[in-house]
Amino acid sequence: MLVKDPQEIRKILEETKTIAVVGFSDDPGRGAAYYVPKHMHEAGYRIIPVNPGLTEGLGERCYPSLGDIPESISVDMVNCFRRPEFIPDIARQAVAIGAKVLWMQMGITSAEAVEIASDAGLKVVQSLCLMKEYNRLLG
């Protein structure tokens, strides 16, 4: 289900505890892929970094893909910092690991990913900044 209503977004943010960040960066020069997860971590969320080029981030082991995250880690939300052409595959992986929410960062949209995730019962947010929405609704 594509979510646009601020109250529903607030509910997602309140219920989410663990966020897998696909395209995570440990480089402050990389912009949002660095500072959004860092901000969310500082706000109390557990951040699971996903990037095949890194081994750790924000005190957590970094995984090459969503499918590499152990089943013992329950991922509530998958937050995407990848180009739109990669999002449908990320949506499939989010479904496979049992995530509840697929969140595409500002400027990222994918009708195919919305369909994949929605058909599997995930809530979907697209083209919104997770950090800005958190600050606006809960900050």
Keywords:
alpha/beta; two-stranded antiparallel sheet; NAD(P)-bd_dom_sf; 5 helices; 7 strands; CoA-bd; CoA-binding protein; Rossmann fold; single chain; 139 residues; globular
Average pLDDT metric: 97
CATH architecture, by name, is 3-Layer(aba) Sandwich
The share of residues in extended strands comes to 15-25%
Assigned CATH class: Alpha Beta
CA-based gyration radius: 13 Å
According to CATH, the fold-level topology is Rossmann fold
Q: What quaternary form is this?
A: single chain
Low-confidence stretches: none
Structural class: alpha/beta
Number of folding domains? Answer: 1
What overall geometry do the principal axes of the alpha carbons give?
A: globular
Q: Total number of helical segments?
A: 5
The ordered string of helix (H) and strand (E) elements is HEHEEEEHEHEH
**Terminal Cα separation, in Å?**
25 Å
How many beta strands in the DSSP annotation?
A: 7
* Largest sheet strand order: 2-1-5-6-7
How would a crystallographer describe the biggest sheet?
5 strands, parallel
The residue fraction in helices comes out at 25-40%
CATH superfamily: NAD(P)-binding Rossmann-like Domain
